[in-house]
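Figure-free illustration: sequence to structure, shown twice.
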Amino acid sequence: MKTAARLTAGVGAVFGAYGLYLQYVLLYDDMAVHGATSLEATWRYFAYFTILTNCFVTLVMARAALSPARQTGLNAPRVELMAVTSILFVGLVYNLLLASRWNPQGWQKLADVIVHDAIPIIFALFWVLRPHGALKWKDAVFAAIWPAAYAVYGLTRGAFDHFYPYFFMDPTTTSIPQLAINMAALIAAFMIGAFVLIAGSRALGRRS
């Protein structure tokens, strides 16, 4: 199991880094055509929950590949819970709510598949292969810090540059009460997902 987890982490880290690089190059090229600088493209790149979460899980997998015995810091059980819940929600929310809104082609399609489909699957497999049994139910609250922090971050930076990457958290097209409901619903769904994963982890821990 340890060898399989380390191998999966290594493969996932490489794929994750490539997907992030490819997505940045494509975004930069698209924005540069319209006169944007590299700084502006980088600022826009880090507006997306998908990108930030892929960066997060890629770092988790890279550290696990390099130091497989470590279960602290990025590889602490509750941090890995936060990561797996976050990346699974990236895949679910994108495919259920956002994928129908555009039709990427070519290299953009490849980047899209890596960050929204491949990495969630690879990281979920990595997480299953990791040691289990240490999580507590209250860790679901810790896991929810990531989307809650992103909501604050996204709305704050949007107030300055007026760019909101997701329609359900865009105060220019959504009323404040509805925006609050959307955020509360997403965080509640996130916590439910974390509870399900904790239950699965505890079951895996008992089996091992």
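We now fold a second protein in the same way, so the two outputs can be compared directly.
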Amino acid sequence: MHVYYRQAHIKQYHKENRALRTETTINNTYDFGIGKRLHNLPKLREVGFAANRRLLEVERLSHDCMITEKTFQTINGPVAAGGQRASGLRFADTKTHALLHAIIVFRLLADGFRSADLRHHLAALCGRDPETITQGAITYQLRRLRLHSLIERIPNTFRYRVTQFGLRVALFFTRAYNRLLRPGLAAALPGPRTVSPALQRAFDNLDAKVSQWLEQARLSPQKT
């Protein structure tokens, strides 16, 4: 694999089919704002090592994501711990979405939050009157969050705090849904627009090519 940046070059290959080797060559030190004299060599080494580490980190996350996949499936599925059970926090589910939005706010509270705080925030996010949400429903939502390790109870109190894991899950789920899934589908699917966006045109071209290929392969239904 070859990666280029200005006059710098990263080459990656398998050395004698035994080990992965990553070589970085910097042909012009001014590409990184560094002079050419020998005393600048440590700075150049750091730039090269940093580039190698970033490339390897991207490859690790892209090709060895089994832990992340397991975590995602665990969050979306039911969980049981200590004789208690709770349903999964399904991605893009409206109730789950509101619940995760609420705990993002609670992460900013130094002394944690109470069940009453969760009730008021959920009611506002769902467009409901807080009085219509029972205490049993709030207790159930708290148990879901706790068993999935998104929140933890503060010892000797009736307050809860959002874990670091819970904050990252809530941020990723809500941002991915709000900023990627919803606008992406709106751009890709056909709709009453005067001008089709680039993503929709790309999908239309792909659909046309696939249909053409099916016709050529005679896999499409024959017209009578």
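Summary for the second example: The longest strand covers residues 8-15.
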